[in-house]
Write a structure and sequence with these properties.
- With about 190 residues, the chain is mainly beta.
- It has one domain (about 45-190): Calycin beta-barrel core domain (Lipocalin, Beta Barrel).
- The chain is built from two helices and eleven strands, in the order ααβββββββββββ.
- It has a ten-stranded antiparallel beta barrel with strand order 1-2-3-4-5-6-7-9-10-11.
- Strand 10 and strand 11 (about 180-190) form a beta hairpin.
- The relative contact order is 0.21.
Length: about 190
C-alpha cells in the first residue's frame, strides 16, 4: 500500500497559501417585503476553542480503502501551546471488534477562516484536507488525493456544527476520478468533564 507522504511543513505551507477566494461568501438575498424570516439558528464561533477537548463518536457507513465501516470511538483535540494548532488522537473499535488508532494535526487560520487537517489514518495512509469555515453552521473540506491499493482516492467532508457540544460529519468518496458518492455519516458528542 502506498500513500502520499506529507510533512507538517507541507501542512503549514498549504495552510498559509490557501487562496483567499475560496473563503468568500455571497451575502444572503434580501428578504421579500411582508415575508416572515425563520428563527435564527444557533451559531458557534469558528475557532480552535470549539474542537479542543474530547469527543465520542459513532460513524455509520460503508467500508472503503481508506477506512473501516461502522465504528465508534473517541477523538481528543489537544492545543499545541499557544499556537493555532491542535493535535488529534483517535482510538476506537469497528463493528467487527477490531481496534484502530488514528492521529493528526488541525490548524486554524482565523483571518481566512480556513481549517487544515493532516491525518495519519488507521490503514497507514496520510491525508491533507482543507476546509472553509466562513459559515458558523458548517465546515466544507476537500482532501488531497491519496494513493491506496492502486486507487486514487479523494474525500469530501461536511462538518455540520449543531451546538457547542455536538457536530455531524458527512463523507463522500471519489475513486480514480469518478463521481463522489456517499461514504457515511458520523455523530460527535463532546465529553463533559
Amino acid at each position: 500500500m502506498t500513500s502520499v507522504k506529507l510533512s507538517t511543513a507541507a501542512l503549514i505551507a498549504a495552510f498559509l497559501i490557501m487562496p483567499a477566494a475560496l473563503h468568500g461568501q455571497d451575502p444572503p438575498p434580501p428578504q421579500a417585503p411582508g415575508r416572515r424570516s425563520s428563527p435564527p439558528q444557533p451559531q458557534q464561533q469558528p475557532g480552535l476553542e470549539y474542537f479542543a477537548g474530547s469527543w465520542t463518536f459513532t460513524w455509520t457507513g460503508r467500508e472503503s480503502a481508506l477506512t473501516a465501516g461502522p465504528r465508534t470511538g473517541t477523538s481528543t483535540f489537544t492545543p499545541i501551546g499557544t499556537t493555532n494548532f491542535l493535535t488529534i488522537a483517535t482510538t476506537g473499535k469497528t463493528d467487527s471488534g477490531a481496534g484502530f488508532e488514528e492521529s493528526g494535526v488541525l490548524g486554524w487560520n482565523d483571518a481566512r477562516k480556513v481549517v487544515a487537517i493532516h491525518e495519519h489514518l488507521g490503514n497507514g495512509s496520510e491525508m491533507l484536507s482543507l476546509g472553509d469555515w466562513s459559515s458558523p453552521l458548517s465546515i466544507r473540506f476537500d482532501s488531497s488525493p491519496v494513493q491506496v491499493k492502486g486507487q486514487t482516492i479523494r474525500l469530501r467532508r461536511v462538518y455540520s456544527i449543531l451546538s457547542a457540544s455536538s457536530f455531524e460529519v458527512t463523507e463522500e468518496i471519489s475513486v480514480d476520478g469518478g463521481a463522489f458518492q456517499r461514504l457515511g455519516n458520523g455523530e460527535f458528542i463532546k465529553t463533559v468533564k
